[in-house]
Amino acid sequence: MSVVATSARASSSRVHLVDLLRLVATLQMVNGHTLDAVVDPSHLTGHGFAVYNFFRGLVSVSFMLASGVAFHLTTIARIETGSLSRAATRKRIRRMIEIICIGYLLRFPLGAWSSDADLAERSWNRLAEIDVLQLIGASLLFLEVVVHVLRDRRRVEIATGVLGLIILALAPLTEGIVAERPLAYLTAWLGHARGSIFPFFPWSAYVFFGAVLGAVAFPRGGHTPPRRTFFSLAALTSVFAAITFVMWRVPITFWVSTMSYHSMPSFFFEKLSYVLGILALLSPLVARIRKLRWPIEDLAQETLPIYVFHLLALFFPPMMFASRIGHDLTLSQGLACSLVMIVLSSVVGLAWPKLSPLARRHGAQKPTAQTVTAPAET
Length: 378
Hints:
globular
């Protein structure tokens, strides 16, 4: 087969819908973090901002679902065709561990050795908190174990959905588990009580449901008929919206009085139904796209360096734009700042495959249909 034919086949089988979801979520994430860091809080109020904030909360859900879909495409859907080989498994596990390590490095306790005891304490506590990268990396490692234990596509898909429901059901109970350091570095994975933004309970359920979503809406990857994808997404949206409607009206009392609203099953299904609904609305439009144009295609593949760079630029020396600017800007000034940050982060994302030894180690070639939504890119 010629190079041209191979390239055309890979392009036609890309899952553009999930690819674009990740890219839009990435840009919104950079925008949201920048506004939080530089805009006077008095400008971030009102009903309009509350609505914006709710939809901004869907960004993390989008990344987690996309990671689950990616795992289905790269691993579960290919169980019979080599995804469980030692080489493929080692590569995935190495990548997942790298994601977790990057997540912890981004929470490095810069003030841990300060003469200010309170600052040092806050720095060590911040290191214990679980953020999105640690959560996604750990969730995918968990799924990797499930795949190697069951070693059958259908059984893995069913087990993944069941595990997602179990994690969601246990989430309200794990909220009450609190411990001081060093045990806090373990208990912080269980709930929000220690300040974790994305603890394993319930957030990993989004990753697991994403893997199930891959089986339902993209059973043949990018070759799945667009009508099948649309009706699957629409049906799932209706089901989860109905579950949300019922749960909001049937009071369910748990014995953990300090439970975070993120651990409420009703809120979980509400956010899930919103993201699936957005995907359903976009799917007929995206189905017309045969190939993503540069630079959209390349940016959608490099969301991890975009994520890392914008946090380093905002909060870490030597740039530390957040500290240099302070919370003094108006909303329009903040949006201008956000645009600059998006451009800078995008440039880094485009340059990353050529400049990074880590990227070169993972291979500089364009991803195929199965890797277009690689779980490492969160």
